[in-house]
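Sample pair:
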Amino acid sequence: MPFSPFPSMTPPSTMTSPLNDVPPHNVASPDIATTSLRNLTLDDLLRTLREGQCSSQVAWETLMSLTSAAGRELRDSCLIARPTDPQGLAFSMATLFCKPERRRTLADLDSAGIFVDRSRSARLAPKDAALLMSDDGLRLWLRYAAAPSAYPTLFVDTIMAHAPGTEPAPTVERALRVLVACGRDTTTDVPISELPGDVYPPLSHLCSHVAVQWLPSLLNFGVNPNQLTAGGVPLVATALAAEAERLHSQGHDLLIAQDSLYRLGKTLYSHGAGLATPSRKGSPPAMLLALNGYCAAAEVLLGLGAACNTSEGNQSGNTLMHQLAAATRQKTYSFTAFFLLSIALRYGGDPDQKNHAGVSAISLLPDSLSHYVRISQKMISQARERALHVIANPRPKSAEESDGTLPTVSASLMSLAKRLCDGGHDPLRPHEALFQQVESLKQQGVDMTQLHRDGSPPVLWLTLRGYCGAAEVLLALAPDCNVPRFEGNTLMHFLAVATRRPGDAIYADYMLNTALRYGGDPTICNHAGHSAIASLSAERARFIRAGMAFIAQTRKSATLTVNARHTSYARATPMTQASPDASLVRHSVATS
């Protein structure tokens, strides 16, 4: 007999079977020879049992025997799952497997230790309970849920076989449901190595890294949308960081939002994820994302409704604005923190709100930055007021609008932006619906750069009608700021000229500054040798140059931060090891 790792293993012939009082399965034929049963795998043995080719008693004895293939297979799984009592788990699983499915109960599963979170048994949907009590469910539990460190292998097994599909394959779907049903999704402390804190992320976090296509299904199965990692980082932060990482690896700019970020954020939010719920150390998700270099992902959270002025979870009453302002005084985070603080201004961020100690965010900034904030505040406020006025009192229809020759992209975005604004949306802000519309138009083959009859590009046309948010979405997904048009003039030239017209100056100036983030270069000369910046007043030119330098440094800082932390998605989340959390923002008002 092979060596047994069960020191107290009782020979099968003398072991007391718990199945003596269970009626045998309907037996259609005599038992297969014991020698034949000993060569069957666990799956084959269970199929033989269900087909009535052997009795429950014989199947149980075979499973408990170390001389059978199924017994050794069960033994090996139990050794991994419960090294302190593998024999007890093997006994429980053999008993469950050999008991008819219709006679199994959740109490049986609870007694066998199936539930990692015992409260799950009281609130399982009938479909999930039936799966967990089935042979298939129990086998999936043994393979992926019994051992604390087994759930990552579900992704490894699938990815090694083929790339994850849009939705999980049926077997993977059942495995995910089993993991959630038994509570394995709550596991946070599975070690990767002997290094302290080096652990696998929870199931939902790991899924967002290696198979984000499955995350909606996982959320539908009931996984906690606010699950924290062992380091206390919420799912919304790690999921958006992973998506931003994928976009970055494909060549996308870390400062420019993409439709996939909005879709992922909205999916999490629709399932109950808190967009501003802080980490265990007190940092809002948007701050974690920005300070880790994922600036566009941080802005997406603000665009989806993450509050800038709440002090939830912070004992000192500090808001996102306070924490970002404090972070600007640290060299490592200064650019990305101030970038998000500047962006937050148009999402309602209040730099003058005071914390419990009476300290405002703007008072934490160096004088040069606080001056920049005041100028930005004024520009945003005036641009919003002017845009709302123009939208409420539209210009007379152009000849293109009257005769139906308006470029498709302009007509489509203006119509959608008008409906959004009528519903209360800020005309300066991008909106996920606008991103989806532009992506749809691109897929239809619509020319995103088709010029208007007067030679102006769609971005300028939308801007001059107050729809700055729609114009910005077009810049994000179809950038053409520096493409030479009539006589070598770029979009930057058009916008700079518009700042000299009293009726258009305010939002043209706003969009000119916004275009810097999307690669707009106001120093490029047209055929006559004139640059866009040369058309501006001295004060505006200084502000534009400062903005150019700031954007360039922020992009460099974000890229260096992300590139310095490249690790395998399957090993750790981007923000669990060296997270610039609230406790690392070394300023008294930034800590909770």
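Confidence is low (pLDDT under 50) at residues 1-14, 23-30, 568-574, 576-592.
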